[in-house]
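Milestone 3.1: sequence recovery, worked example.
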């Protein structure tokens, strides 16, 4: 019974992702791809420089149900957090929000948005594009 409920939540986030689409005025962004499943997620943040809070977060991209649902759930959690609070989120926090068992390949799907978020939070650490 609980398994069905969590599957339905994931499908709802996949079919109607929250905070999906472009974000005008974004001052941070990061992207990540998972070639094993074809997932590609870009996270965009609008951070208020005065209080270092995430005023808005949106994502774009496509991928499997797990990837899109996880990114959607993550954006709901991020709105209103400070940068410090966002930086303290862990991969386990992201996986727990899905609340379903995942194979190693599906873990990578579930973390695609999280990795993109890390690149947005720490642009200085992201590899330079050529």
């Amino acid at each position: 019974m609980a398994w069905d409920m969590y599957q339905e939540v994931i499908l709802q986030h996949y079919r109607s992702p929250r905070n999906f689409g472009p974000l005008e005025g974004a001052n941070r962004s990061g992207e990540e791809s998972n070639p094993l499943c074809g997932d590609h997620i870009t996270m965009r943040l609008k951070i208020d420089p005065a209080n270092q809070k995430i005023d808005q977060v949106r994502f774009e991209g496509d991928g499997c149900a797990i990837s899109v649902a996880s990114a959607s759930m993550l954006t709901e959690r991020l709105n209103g957090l400070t940068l410090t609070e966002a930086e303290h989120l862990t991969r386990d926090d992201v996986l727990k929000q899905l609340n379903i068992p995942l194979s190693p390949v599906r873990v990578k799907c579930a973390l695609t948005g999280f990795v993109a978020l890390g690149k947005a939070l720490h642009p200085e650490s992201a590899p330079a594009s050529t």
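The chain has six helices and three strands. The helical segments are 2-15, 65-78, 83-87, 91-98, 104-110, 112-121.
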